[in-house]
UniProtKB/TrEMBL annotation:
UniProt protein name: Heat-shock protein
Annotated Gene3D superfamilies: 2.60.40.790
InterPro entries per record: A-crystallin/Hsp20_dom, ACD_IbpA/B, HSP20-like_chaperone
Source superkingdom: Bacteria
Species in which this protein is naturally found: Bradyrhizobium arachidis
Amino acid sequence: MRTVDFSPLFRSAIGFDRLFDLAEAAQRAGEETYPPYNIERLDENRFLISVALAGFSPDEVVLTVEQNVLTLEGHKSEKEGKTFLHRGISARHFKRQFTLADHVEVKGASFENGLLVIDLQREIPEAMKPRRIAINGAVPSNVAQIESKAA
């Protein structure tokens, strides 16, 4: 049995740490790998998930988000009266789930050329961003918001 070590990916992944845990658990459980997908990092807080859905139309795919879980389901409508000599394009139903990190939101999704592209954005609330606290006796001009990138 072939195993994959995802630990090097934890260092460079922002917002998808738990996703790698799920991928590793899925590999151990022998879960099927359909439909194939890519996760692309555009910058520190933006990600794209591209899912290959050849043969599906947008109305046969449902995308939902609930409590940091992004769920993608596909239900292929079968047309009666078709006789296949060879059937290589999958027409099976599927359900794939992605666990999103805290403060990662789905900004949109588009379906083009057989690819479903899901745009994700990490937005840290102002209350959670680091800020400098004034210390009694300090000169007031030293008090300012710290400009930093969220981890």
